[in-house]
Amino acid sequence: MKARKRAEFVPAKPHAKLTTGEVIRMLRELKGWTQAELARRSGISATNISLLENGKVEIGKKRVEQIAKAFDVHPAIIMFPEYEGKEIQRVA
User: Fold this and answer.
1) Alpha helices (H) along 32-72
2) Radius of gyration (Cα) for the chain, nearest Å?
3) Which CATH number do you get for residue 73?
4) How many domains, the chain?
5) Do 10 and 2 form a contact (C-beta atoms < 8 A)?
6) What is the pLDDT of residue 76?
7) Is residue 5 part of a domain?
């Protein structure tokens, strides 16, 4: 087997992009929470949690802050999942 030089390797790129709704659902499921539980903890109705998870409504700053507080994570993890993939993995 031929030895390779470090400069020959290229970092892997992410294979999937997550939406904000997918991040919310993923974090909620990792916590073992129902939509009703996340609603209780965040102050956002379960109906709106469902709409957010399914990409039917935009999240907005206030909702991001409420959900981030419920999960005890930085709002950027939810708002910008494509930039915060490593942090999402850490939280999970």
Assistant:
1) 35-42, 46-53, 60-71
2) 17
3) 1.10.260.40
4) 1
5) no
6) 87
7) no
pLDDT band, residue 62 (cuts 50/70/90): very high
Q: Read off the tokens for 14.
A: 């992410």
Q: Report pLDDT for 79.
A: 85
Give the residue among 73, 62, 77, 67 at the shortest CA–CA distance from 37: 67
Helices (H) and strands (E) in the chain, counts: 6, 0
Distance in Å from the first CA to the final CA of the chain: 37
pLDDT of residue 47 exceeding 80, the answer is: yes
Question: pLDDT band at residue 92, thresholds of 50, 70 and 90?
Answer: low
Q: Which is nearest to 18 in space by CA: 89, 65, 75, 80?
A: 80
Residue 8, domain member (yes or no) = no
Q: What is the pTM of this model?
A: 0.73
